[in-house]
Design goal:
It holds the Pfam family Tubulin. This protein has about 80 residues and is α+β, with helices and mostly antiparallel strands. It folds into 2 domains: about 1-40, no CATH class; about 45-84, no CATH class. Helix content is about 20%, strand content about 15%. The chain is elongated, with a radius of gyration of 15 Å.
Length: about 80
């Protein structure tokens, strides 16, 4: 949310900024998609789907590409050896 706001992007990935400075280096964090929308350059990985569901349900959840979410079916249960 912080980086999106600093670059003038709303929760839909649309640029609503007021300064050309906001567009500088935007490609470091975002890729431009169709319809002048920007999507985060991110891959989200976790062992359990619950955290990914929380991201999707958040205010910026629709900003991420669905195919960039990777998760297992169950977590490590706070057991480092199981998760490693």
């Amino acid at each position: 949310q912080q980086i999106s706001g600093e670059h003038g992007l709303d929760s839909n990935g649309v640029y609503n900024g007021t300064s050309d400075l906001q567009l500088e280096r935007l490609s470091v964090y975002f890729n431009e998609a169709s319809g002048n929308k920007y999507v985060p350059r991110a891959v989200l990985v976790d062992l359990e789907p619950g955290t990914m569901d929380a991201v999707r349900a958040g205010p910026f959840g629709q900003l991420f590409r669905p195919d960039n979410f990777f998760f297992g079916q169950s977590g490590a249960g706070k057991n480092w050896a199981k998760g490693h």
